[in-house]
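Document type: protein sequence-to-structure record

Subject area: structural biology

Format: plain text, a pair of labelled lines:
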Amino acid sequence: MKKEIKAKNNILELIGNTPLIKLQNITKNLTGNFYAKVEAFNPGHSSKDRIALYIIEKAEKEGILKPGDTIIETTSGNTGFSIAMVSILKGYNCILSVSSKSSPDKIDMLRTMGAKVYVCPANVAADDPRSYYEVAKRLHSELEGSIYINQYFSQLNIDAHYQTTGPEIWEQTNGLITHFVACSGTGGTISGTARYLKEQNPNIKILGVDAFGSVIKNFHETKEFDKNEIYPYRIEGLGKNLIPGATDFDVIDQFMKVTDEAAAHTARELAKTEGIFAGYTSGAAIQATKQYDAAGMFDATSNVVVLLPDHGSRYMSKIYNENWMADQGFFDSVHNEDVKKVEYIK
């Protein structure tokens, strides 16, 4: 029998089928069983690999994308990295408009992956011509042979997770999942996963995570857009100052808001207790899970899956940087142990 080398044809074949890991320590004082869906195991280190590949291949099948075309997208960093990665292997140019809230690490990664990057001010209205939404639209209108992914309003964003993330979680839990916790930015991840899970068992509770300074939670509860909810916050890829069309609010049962500070410390706690080096929004997801538990959401039979969207390496200049944490005023008498651990020998 002829022996063959077992290898993937390219890195894109590694997208999806990320592991489910039982949390043993950070949730030890919570009621129920808790599992992390660790999306950092995607080759681009985030859940956004799923939508980048799905949307681009859909555009190819429909003849919208042709060799040498340019893909334009609005991103807080992760989607841009994934699109740039897919573009390299499929032969497309990539232009990204990025919020200035994105970490320098993310912006450097995008450039490294060959993308042209436009950094736009974060704290402007969504319809301001300087916003990363409007810059992407303008670039698309000016550049012939370009497509604008527009993840915030693309139903394909939802479809990608309906086709992949939802079925994976259902299979990995053998249908025993009772609650799904996920952050909501564009809303594609939580909406697509929720649609699939609710079709399998409508009793599964879908628990969203929002940021203070975002309009998502209030809109879910009132169906009204309240601009007074909007103010600057630090977490990337979570919450919005507009209502994304890629969010299916009907399949989400509840939202919980978390603070910048609590999310940052919980991400650091996750690394120190579980050995999972995850991003800022992952900290937000675990922090919200703690708050849902405190509100009496779970019981001893609950099987809670928490989606961790990306890897901690993209936040080395932010939540994993002592100076940045100190500058935000995030260290106090309780949260200062990390600073004391480092001694410099001269």
